[in-house]
Structure formats: C-alpha cells, structure tokens
Amino acid sequence: MIRVLRFVAVCAITVVFATLSIAWAQTYTLVDYPGAASTTLNGGPNPQGTAVGSWVDASGVTHGFTFTKKGVFTSFDPPGSTSTTPNFISPQGDIVGSYVDSGNVSHGFILSGGKYTTLDFPGAAGTVLTGINPSGELSGFSCVVASCATSPFHSFTVSKKGVFTSFEPSGATSSTASTVSPSGAVVGAYTDSGGVTHGYLLFHGTYATDDFPGSIFTFNGGGNPEGDIAGIYIDTAGAGHGFLLSNGVYTSFDYPGASLTEGTGINAGGVIVGLYTDSAGVAHGFVRTP
Q1: What is the C-alpha separation between 51 and 36, in angstroms, rounded?
Q2: Which partner from 81, 127, 263, 269 sits 20 to 30 angstroms from 257, CA to CA?
Q3: Mean pLDDT over the full length of the chain
Q4: For residue 277, is it within any domain?
C-alpha cells in the first residue's frame, strides 16, 4: 500500500544530490491500530507529537485515526465516509485528507476544531487533500476517476483565500502534490510519458526533478520547512525502500525485516512517519526518530 493512491528551496532550487548513505543508528517505533487488519501512518508528527494514519477493520473498511506521543489512538471518519485517509496534521492540529462516499466519489476534507469541511477541486471527478501549512494554504490533487483509485492525477494548491491553482511539471502525464511548506514550496511526484515516476520540487514557479540514485521509481511522500524530504524509491530489483533527502544527501532506510518501506511524512525535527509491509504483505505504521 503506497500513499500515492494520496520544502523550502535547496540552494535556490539548484538541486545537487551528492552523496548516497545508509541509515544505521535510528530508532523505529511500530504503530499498529489495536485490532486492525492493517495500519499506515500518513503524516506528522506535529509539534505536539500527534501523527495521523489509516487502519482497516475486519470488514475491510478503512478509517482515519490520530496517534499521540503518549500512545493514544482515536479513530475518526467524516460523515458519510465509506473509506477515510487522513494525510497530514498541522502544528495547529488541523487534519486534511480524503474520504470516499457511498457513490464511490473521493472528496477532500479538513478537520479543524472538531468540525469537518469538504473541499473539492472545481469540476474534478474526485479530490484528495494532502497537506496544509500554518497559514492555511493547502496541497492536493484532482482525479479523472471519481474514486481517485487510479491515475491520471493533477497537482494543485489552494490559497488561504480559497483560490485553486492546478499545475503540472513539464512532461508529466500525471502528478500529485504531497505537502506545501510555510514558504509555499510544494513537494510531490509525477509520471512522465515513459511511465516513470519522479519526485518534484516546486518553489516560486520553478520546478526541479529528484530521483533516488539508481532507482526506477521515486515518490516524494512529504517535506518539512527545513527542506528535508521523505519518500519511497524502488531499486532495479523491484524492492521498495524509504529515503530521506537532506541537504542534498540521500539516505536509504528500511524498517527492520520489512519487505517494503515508505516514508510518508517528516516533521521539522527530522522525525519520519511511514509504513512498511511484512513478509505476509501486511501493512504497519512506524515512526523513525533520528
């Protein structure tokens, strides 16, 4: 299960990816929603230590949840949801994501102060929200297929005044925006005409492409205000690994014993949340602490 189904400029958007390193000394914490068939962490933790994710119940229904630094789980679903995927939690505790209604249509949602607001890209068949910065600017993607289960997708931002702006990196046939930073920089991913997926960085109208060295697939899952990016890459053997891009240096990492690892979010302190699959193909959430 990869989040694609859902930064400030580095050196003035000149991207130099110098060194590949391997992570050795980090601490991993397993996060499984109690009784869940599978669990993913999708965003956070915010400064209060709260992360957001999804869990699947015994009937196969997906729900959203929050997870605090004290280990407290709270499940939630927007009204009318048949499947809920929260993607990001802000420093203020606002949560954004998507839900699918009974008509199999995906909608963006904002959960703020205990109240839900639905937000859909005008005229789109489906919508997913992926990020929110402290000023209230949003990131997300619109979908040609109403459920947002398959591409093509199109990246967008929404200003704090509610103005939607759709955009696409040059040569993209599909793209998703993953997060928007306090400075308005966007981290995301796009697929080119050859079917290859790359990470992208957008800052003040300028794009840069990033690919993990030697990979055949790179997806930027999230960025932080310092310009660090966490995500997933697939190597030439077809294995999926997590990565951190910080100060132009790529670091590969894997949850111990995982068959696939994905970084889905990173906070200002460098704490990464994500998901991994075990040998049986079951998804679990994790927190990676530097």
Answers
A1: 17
A2: 269
A3: 92
A4: no
Token code pair at residue 224: 């932080």
Which residues lie below 8 Å from residue 89, measured CB to CB, with a gap of 6+?
A: 43, 44, 45, 46, 50, 51, 52, 66, 95
What CATH number is attached to the domain comprising 155? Answer: 2.130.10.150
Domain that holds residue 170: 38-224
Could you tell me if residue 214 is inside a domain? yes
**How many Å is the Cα radius of gyration of the chain?**
17
Beta bridge partners of 39: 55
CA distances to 139, 181, 188, 222, 232 from 168, rounded to whole Å, are 13, 18, 10, 17, 21
pLDDT in tens, 40-71: 999 999 999 999 999 999 999 999 999 999 99
Number of other CB atoms surrounding residue 11 within 10 Å: 11
State residue 278 phi and psi, 5-degree precision: -90, -175
CA 3 – CA 144 distance, rounded (Å) = 18
In a domain, 216, yes or no: yes
- For residue 265, give every residue at least 6 positions away whose Cβ sits within 8 Å of its Cβ, in sequence order, or none: 41, 42, 43, 44, 51, 88, 179, 221, 222, 230, 272, 273, 274
Q: Number of folded domains in the chain?
A: 1
